[in-house]
Amino acid sequence: MTEHPDLPGSLFCRLQLSPEQLARLSPRRVAALNVEDGRAWITRQGEAADLILGPGQHLTIAADSAPLLVSGFDSGRAAALRVEFRVPTADWRLRLARRLLVPGSLAGAWQ
Question: Which CATH number characterizes residue 62's domain?
Answer without folding.
Answer: 2.60.120.10
